[in-house]
């Protein structure tokens, strides 16, 4: 339940390069790097409710560990996949609907931060969140 709570973006590492590799155009990359993202996570056993609120959209995502679901990124990229718990880390394995390529995402608590790591086509990016 360590993920529970509201988290506000603090900083990014290599996020713009990641978005470029994902095929996000330059205008959306510039805006995405400063999206002011806030994530609220509620975990109840294997069920999660994640509310993402940014300058671009607010969306509620409900998922159960190990159960596949569909999700659209803020730029409109559609994915299908699932989250699983590996130790203290949430691991998301997703496939892009448009090209069949894999996107892996990780969420873990490191110190007092929520660290979200994305890996796509060998490019890794991290987003660091502070608890609100």
TrEMBL record:
Q: Which residues form the Cytosolic fatty-acid binding proteins domain?
A: 5-22
Which Gene Ontology MF annotations are present? long-chain fatty acid binding
**Keyword entries, A-Z:** Acetylation, Cytoplasm, Lipid-binding, Transport
Note the Pfam families from the entry. Lipocalin
**Does the record bear Acetylation in its keywords?**
yes
Taxonomically, which superkingdom? Eukaryota
Gene Ontology CC: one annotated term:
cytoplasm
| InterPro entries in alphabetical order | Calycin (IPR012674), FABP2 (IPR031272), Fatty_acid-bd (IPR000463), ILBP (IPR031259), Lipocln_cytosolic_FA-bd_dom (IPR000566)
Question: According to its UniProt record, which protein family does this protein belong to?
Answer: Belongs to the calycin superfamily. Fatty-acid binding protein (FABP) family.
User: What PANTHER family does UniProt report for this protein, alphabetically?
Assistant: FATTY ACID BINDING PROTEIN (PTHR11955)
Q: What is this protein called?
A: Fatty acid-binding protein, intestinal
Naturally occurring in which organism (per UniProt)? Anser brachyrhynchus (Pink-footed goose)
What is the name of the gene encoding this protein? FABP2
